[in-house]
Design goal:
Elements: E1 10-13, E2 16-19, H1 25-43, H2 48-55, H3 59-81
Length: 82
């Protein structure tokens, strides 16, 4: 979901200018924990509105995190079913 691409600098993606930052282990750990926490709260039935207030993120960002998490879960389920 959140990815750093070394050496790419600024890129135009989905109509927004994005900057790819150099690898930072602390930032990666924080993002991983944030993704896990949001995933756990979603599994508990929390709405995007509640998560938005709880984590201070926009609903659009939370929707993107949820979609990426759902795709990852689907891929894992497909791999186990084979």
């Amino acid at each position: 979901m959140f990815r750093n691409v070394a050496g790419k600098g600024w890129q135009l993606a989905r109509g927004a200018l994005q900057m790819y930052l150099p690898y930072d282990p602390l930032r990666e750990a924080i993002l991983l924990e944030l993704n896990r926490a949001i995933g756990i709260r979603r599994a508990q039935g929390a709405s995007l509105e509640a998560l938005s207030m709880e984590y201070g993120l926009s609903k659009d960002v939370l929707q993107r995190i949820a979609e990426a998490d759902d795709r990852t879960t689907e891929r894992k389920a497909e791999g186990q079913g084979s």
